[in-house]
């Protein structure tokens, strides 16, 4: 596919060739070496003029297209640097206004996003503090529970030991009672 500058060049060269052919056709009988030299320079001029004009018209369009593509890709700082008050300059100025509006909207969006984040943080902070306080209370209660559980286990062991002592004392008492009753029986007899 031909670029825009080549399309313009092609159109100018075809127009020039038509003019040259018309000149040659009109004076075909009166052609001389100077006439052919003039035609040669005229063809060369038309080709160079076509290239020059094609580049001159396509350069601003390429800048505008590049800026438009960058905007489409999300670069809101992209601008089309085309000077002039012709249609190309007006198109570039319009594209730059669109880019400026997009950049302003993007900045407002970022500011709003930051503002919302600050508000959410302001609202959530007390909840976060409350959650931290509750977590600390839960940790403290868990530690208290473990300490109370350890104390209860020690008391249970002490209770079992005391019960064992009590059983032992009961056994000793029963032995003493048996001895005493034997002693009393023997004394009575």
Automatic annotation (TrEMBL):
Membrane topology: Multi-pass membrane protein
GO CC annotation: plasma membrane
GO molecular function, one term: phosphorelay sensor kinase activity
Subcellular location as annotated: Membrane
Span of domain HAMP: 55-107
Segments traversing the membrane: 7-28, 34-53
Keyword field contains Transferase: yes
SMART domains, per database record: HAMP
Catalytic reaction(s) noted: ATP + protein L-histidine = ADP + protein N-phospho-L-histidine
EC number(s) recorded for this UniProt protein: 2.7.13.3
Annotated keywords: Kinase, Membrane, Phosphoprotein, Transferase, Transmembrane, Transmembrane helix
The keyword Transmembrane belongs to this UniProt entry's keyword annotation: yes
Protein name in the entry: histidine kinase
Organism, as annotated: Candidatus Staskawiczbacteria bacterium RIFCSPHIGHO2_01_FULL_41_41
